[in-house]
Each structure stands twice: as C-alpha cells, then as structure tokens.
Specification:
By secondary structure, the chain is an alpha/beta fold. The protein has 30 helices and 19 strands. The chain is globular.
C-alpha cells in the first residue's frame, strides 16, 4: 500500500487597505515594520519561500522553497498587496507552484480561494458566484493555470456553496472532519453511517452529491495533528513534526492513505518563530523516509477517486462548533476576553445584510442605463480590478456597455461597480471573528460599508446612512466609552471618509515639506498641478494653487484650489474648495499674498477663512504615512537637541561612570536615561550611515553592558536588517568588487557581539544565490586574485551562518 503526506497552509490576512486610498497606511502597532502585512510577510511568507535547512551544527546547509513541496492557498487580496509591495516574494510563490507541477504529476501546489474571505453560507447566491468567479480569475491571472481546488474561507460550507464551486469547474475543497454528518460507500446499497464527532477516515477523498445533480470531492484533514501544529507548539521540532505525521499512518488500513493536515499558514513563522524551518525540516525528513511520499490533493485525487460519499452539516465551519454562528450571533466562540459578550455580531450582520440588499436594488436599476447585464458585468469586473490600465477598461466596456458610453458615463458605471466591490468587502469574515465591535477588523468592514454608502449617495441613491446607523446602534460595545456601533461609526469611521477635497488638502499641506512633480501620484489619486505660487517670510511659508484631482480607479475628477500657511513647528492652516472661476481664484491669490507679504499672519488666516470657510485642515489631516514623514522632519531638530544635551552629560561624567564600573559600584540611576538614549542613538547611526565602525560598535555595546543600558532591540534590529539588505544588494550588483565584499564581511563580523538576533534573510538569500551561480565561475578562472576572493567569500558565508566546505574549494582555487 502507498502512503502519502500532504501539508496544507491557508495563508491569509484580512484586507487592510484604506477604502479611499486603496493602500495600507502606516500601522504603529506593527513597528518597526510599516504595517502588519509587511511584518507578517517578513516573518512568514518570505521565509517559507526561502526556508533554511540546517546541518547538525545549526548552520545553513541548503535554502529551499516550502511552497513547492506543500499544498497552499493565498488570499487574493493579500497577493494583490504582495505583488505591489513585495513583488520578489509574490514571484517566488508563483514560481513554487510551477516547480510543484514537475514534482506532483503535473498538478500545482496552489489552491484558489473565494475572493475576499466572505463566509459563503451566509452570502447571497449571487455573491457566492461572484466570490468564486473572482477567486478563479485572480488565480488564473497569477498562476497561469486553472485551479483544481478552492479553499472556502473558514472552511465554511453548505451544499449551495459546494454546488457553486462545482458549477465553476472546481474539483475539490478541504474541510474539517467535524463538518461531516454521515458517510457510506458509493458502491452497493449500504446504509448511511453516523460520522458526527469526526468519526471518519481522513486518509481518503470523499464525494458530496449535490441537489442539482453535480458533485464535488472533499478532503477532511487530520484533526489531532492539525491541532498540534496550530496550538501545541509541534513546530518547535521539525523531526517531531515529521514523526507525528508519519505515525498518523494506520498500518491496519488496506487502502492507499493520504495523511494530510490544514492550518493557518501563518503558523509557519508568524505565530511560531522559526516555524518555517520546522516545516522545511519535516518536509525534508519525509522526503528521505521510506514510509511515505509527499503529495498534494490534486495528485492524490487523480490517482485515488472517491469510493465513499458524505453529507456535511448544513452549514458548518472549521472555527465554530455552532455551524456558522460565529459570524452572526453570540454563539460562545471568541478569543477569550472574560466578561465580554458578542451580542453585537447579530445587529452588525443585520445592518450589513439590509444595506447590501438596498445597494443591490439601486445598482441593478441604475446600472441598466450603462451595462447590458449589470450582474454579469460585476462578475467580469475582476478583469479591471486585476488590470486598471486604459486598455483593460476599454476592453471591459466593449464587452458590457449597453450603448456607446461617453467618458462621463464610463465614470458612473465604474463607480457603480466599485460600490458593489465594497459591498462585498464589507462581509470579510474577520469583522465578526474577534471579541469586540471596536476592534480594527470590525472597524475595517464598517469602513467598507461607509465607502459603499458614500458612492451610493453620490450616484443619486436615497440616503441610506440613517437607517444603517439605526440598526448598527443596537450593536453594543463591551467597552463603555465606545457605547455602540453608531458611536463607533461616528468616532472611527466617519472621520476616515475622504473626498477629493481631502486629497487636495493633503497635497497642499505635504507640498510645503516636499516637492511634487507637475503630475503626482498620491496613493490611488493623480494630482495635476495647474498653477502654484509659493512665498516665504523667515520660517513661514505660504503655498497657493489650483490642482486637478483624479481618482484613478473610477477616473472621477475635480479642479480644486488651495491655500496653505505654515508658521513653523506644528502650526499650520489650510483651506481647499472646488474651483469656481478664474476671477475668484485670482482675487484669492492677490488678497492672500498681500496679507502674507506684510507678515501679518493673523490677517492671512482671516483671508483664508473668508475664501474657504470651514473646515480648516492641519497636520492632523495628512494621510498617516505623510504625517509621519512630516513630523519626522519637524522633530529632527528636537531630537538632535536632546541628543546633544544628553551627549554633553554622558561625556562629562564618563570618567566617573567608568570608575564606578571598575570598582563594581552600581551606576548613578539619574545618569542612566541619558546614557541609554546616547548609546541607542549612536548604535543606530552607525548602521544607518552604511559604514559602521566595528570598534566603535563594540565599545558602545560594552558601554551598554557597563551601565545596564537597555538596547532598543526592535528598532536597532530593523536598522541593522536594512543595512545588511542594502549591503547585500550592492554586493549582488558588483560581486567581484573586493572592497564591497570586505565591507560586507566587516559588518558580518559584528553579528556575534550584537545583543540581538538580526534578520539576515535577504543577505543570506543573495549569498546563496552567488554561491550557486557566481562562485563556480570564480573557481574556474583560478589564479591568485580568484583565491583571495574565494577566501573572503567563504569567510563571509561562515559569518552569515552557512555550512562551508573550505578544503575542496580553496584547493580548486
């Protein structure tokens, strides 16, 4: 009998994009990374693309792709972010699927996923179809093939959801063993057998016969082993992980077996540090075992079609023991906040369901003016989401327009389709998964609702917001100050709503601190500068101008005028409004300039008030990334002043502090903050300038130890990571440059003395790449110069943690 093992990772993060900017803004909680997508990417998604296999001494023996040897799915919205922000990792994932086809009989490791993690049994039939179509089309665009399997968000399933998969050519999906109700052999007239409580053989594929005559194969993962990976720290030991999988083989079964598990992919590196290495070692152990072979679902299904059929619980999911109640009621499933309840889930679901239905009616009626079949157009709109080029948009309208549309009509049609996109994004499952309605995941889905409401109102629909808030008010928060969903909407959602005026204000304010080109890209907006005038008086600065602001996604645009007065520090006032006439614009410029030139800033502000009225904009209104950048500029002088003051103190008392250390007397506590600040600042500067002085770095670390100064490990580690990233990229461009190689080695020599573990992922990858491709060329050349290069290169490899075989290489050189 053949034995196979398959490890499936469900890699997914909720969409984090600002619904108005179509970009993930700075998230302070993810520091030192920009946002949580980036942080998890470097903790999990990237490491699994280039996983380390270690030798017996804990040194890197090989770097491999876990993705090419396992089964996986990625959320389409996550891959969309990754393609833009981390294209190298996106490409590595796509390439891994190609390589897996060579390994697994022409079948790829990647599965598709329903588009934006909507709980499918709670979706309308129409939304189910669009989610599956968008998931398939996104998959095809990325991986260049049709998907054979599809992951259902939270494994949430019912017969209609499975039937939709089957209708669109999906052959199989993966569910929890606790979702099975009963089972029976396909052949003969056998009675149904109760399978409740996971009483099912998880080592084979099963068939679900669907009401409309279709069918789909289902795999039920091994519950205990999956649980051990997700919650019992099995990944801390790759050998134990492999052993647990191999020991799941039942020698008494008389059929070929597939031992398979399914967990959140983030277990492999984010939830459990070095989980990617545990996975890599387990896959390596299994590959070298004579007890089982690695496989994936599609390959196993081709060789072993179902011999039994099942019926599943209707509906059910892998993370809720009450069906799918976690996403619509206070079922008891939660993240563990004692004393809290989740009664807010029901009114949130009701508010969004009602809004969805009203938006659907409006969309269908309004869109018929522009699109032959509005709902078919919505399904095909994924082609525009994937490629927003003018050519793609034109091709879409050529296929769907009800008549020859004007440019304005196209804008309206695109806005209607965007309304529907946000009406689906607002059902992303994470909005209900956790414990509190004011949590960032729930606020995110309510923001999608607010964006849909805004588009509907601008397109001429009745004002649906009052009724939406009436229902949302019933959703009570567990945090007294937040009260309910309506208050949360007013506090956290409404202020986030943006217009082209808001974008104009951002441009006006940020242009005081950085220079924009005449045609500037600001997130999902294009700003064309039609006129700009800047005046200065000492530290004060006045900017006035006229700009055309276009939302790239819908091509909707407006001309806006602005006036922004900066008076130093954080004191700034800005006004914007839509352009009315050249005469009024000229009058505004003349009056404002006259007041400013007389250095009467109070009068300048009064002039701005007369021309713009309310609201006023300030640094608070900048988008988060630009706000952080501007404040950094403003605070640079402040930080430098603090540094100089502390440096003066530490220099003055350094002899005393050294003396106290020599005679083992505790340092003066009053001097500790100054010493700590200076040491951390200097350490970071050493690596930021790209040429760290190794002796100075060592002395600073020694000083920290002598004074018990705490090293800011996260901040310093991030700075050092960036230093090694830059250095390795420089080396990759000029690998023969001995000076760069020596600088690289000098920096790497500091790794053993640093009081933290440095993320060398990129540096090690580049070294491994050069070791495989460039080193053989140098070896072949021979000669004294090649020998010097090889010696330094091998030393660098040892410093970076590689297993290096010196003798044969140096002899060849």
């Amino acid at each position: 009998m053949q034995r196979y093992i398959c490890i499936h990772g469900h890699f997914y993060q909720p969409p984090r994009e600002n619904p108005w900017l179509e970009a993930v803004e700075l998230q302070g909680s993810a520091a030192p990374y920009h946002d949580w997508n980036e942080r998890i990417c470097f903790e999990c998604y990237a490491p699994n693309a280039r996983a380390r296999l270690l030798d017996g001494d804990g040194r890197i023996d090989r770097i491999v792709s876990n993705y090419s040897r396992m089964s996986f799915n990625f959320g389409p919205t996550l891959l969309s972010w990754m393609k833009e922000k981390q294209p190298e990792i996106h490409e590595a994932i796509v390439e891994a699927d190609k390589k897996s086809r060579e390994r697994f009989s022409g079948h790829g490791s990647a599965l598709a996923q329903a588009y934006n993690h909507m709980i499918m049994p709670l979706a309308t039939t129409r939304d189910k179809h669009t989610q599956v179509v968008w998931g398939i089309r996104d998959f095809e665009a990325r991986f260049g093939r049709k998907p054979e399997g599809m992951w259902l968000p939270e494994c949430a399933a019912d017969n209609e959801s499975l039937d939709v998969l089957a209708q669109h050519g999906i052959k199989f999906t993966v569910l929890s063993p606790f979702q099975v109700a009963r089972v029976r052999p396909l052949e003969g007239e056998n009675e149904w057998q109760d399978a409740n409580g996971a009483k099912i053989d998880p080592t084979m594929a099963y068939l679900v016969k669907l009401p409309e005559g279709r069918s789909i194969a289902v795999f039920f993962y091994d519950g205990p082993v999956s649980q051990a990976v997700a919650f019992e720290k099995l990944l801390t030991n790759g050998e134990a992980f492999a052993g647990r999988l191999l020991n799941a083989i039942d020698e008494n079964r008389q059929h070929d077996q597939l031992i398979h598990i399914a967990t959140d992919g983030e277990s492999y590196g984010h939830h459990f540090q070095f989980g990617d290495m545990g996975l890599a070692y387990a896959l390596h152990q299994i590959e070298n075992s004579d007890r089982a072979k690695l496989s994936i679902y599609a390959e196993f299904l081709e060789k072993h079609p179902p011999t039994s059929e099942v019926e599943i619980h209707q509906p059910s999911a892998w993370s809720c023991s009450h069906g799918v109640e976690r996403w619509r009621s206070d079922c008891g499933c939660n993240a563990g906040h004692e004393g809290w309840n989740q009664q807010w889930r029901k009114p949130l679901r009701e508010a969004l369901d009602e809004l969805r239905d009203k938006l659907a009616d409006f969309f269908e009626t309004k869109a018929k003016e522009f699109l032959r079949d509005p709902w078919q157009a919505r399904e095909d709109y994924i082609s525009v989401i994937l490629d927003r080029s003018p050519e793609s948009v034109s091709k879409f309208f050529a296929a769907h327009e009800a008549r020859k549309l004007s440019e304005g009509d196209r804008v309206t049609a695109l806005r209607l389709l965007e309304l529907q996109r946000h009406a689906m994004l607002m059902f992303t499952s994470c909005g209900w998964f956790f414990d509190e309605i004011s949590g960032i995941e729930t606020v995110q889905v309510i923001q999608y609702a607010a964006r849909a409401l805004q588009l509907a109102t601008e397109l001429g629909a009745e004002n649906l917001e009052p009724r939406f808030l009436e229902v949302l008010e019933k959703a009570k928060s567990n945090i007294p100050e937040h009260q309910n969903g309506k208050v949360i909407y007013e506090k956290f959602v409404k202020p986030a709503v943006m217009t082209r005026e808001t974008v104009g204000a951002h441009y006006a304010i940020s242009s005081l601190f950085e220079s924009y080109p005449d045609n500037a890209k600001i997130f999902s907006y294009t700003v064309v500068q039609e006129d700009r005038q800047v005046w200065t008086a000492g530290h004060a600065k006045l900017a006035m101008g006229r700009i055309k602001v276009t939302f790239d996604i819908t091509q909707n645009s407006d001309v806006i005028i602005y006036g922004a007065l900066y008076m130093g520090g954080h004191n700034l006032s800005c006004g914007v409004r839509f352009f009315q006439s050249q005469e009024k614009y000229d009058q505004f410029v003349t009056e404002t300039r006259k007041a400013f030139e007389s250095t009467d800033f109070a009068e300048t502000i009064r002039v701005l008030d007369r021309h713009f009225g309310e609201p006023h904009y300030s640094l608070k209104n900048l988008f988060r990334d630009e706000q952080f950048k501007v404040l950094n500029q403003i605070l640079t002088a402040t930080r430098e002043d603090i540094y100089n003051a502390y440096k003066s103190i530490t220099d003055r008392y350094a002899p005393l502090m050294n003396f106290l250390n020599d005679i083992h007397v505790p340092p003066l506590q009053s001097l500790a903050p100054a010493a700590e600040f200076v040491i951390n600042a200097e350490l970071q500067k050493q690596f930021e300038n790209g040429h760290p002085d190794t002796e100075r770095v060592k002395s600073l670390i020694q000083a920290a130890q002598n004074t018990n100064a705490a090293i800011e490990k996260d901040a310093l580690g991030f700075v050092i990571k960036k230093h090694f990233d830059r250095l390795s990229e420089e080396f990759l461009k000029s690998p023969e440059d001995l000076e760069i190689l020596q600088r690289f080695s000098n920096s790497a020599s500091l790794l053993p003395v640093l009081p933290l573990q440095v993320n060398l992922w990129k540096a090690q990858n580049i070294y491994d790449r050069l070791r495989g491709k460039f080193l053989p060329e140098i070896e072949e050349r021979g000669g004294e110069k090649s020998g010097v290069w090889i010696d330094k290169f091998l030393t660098l490899g040892e410093q970076l943690g590689f297993h290096i075989e010196r003798n044969s290489l140096q002899k060849a050189a």
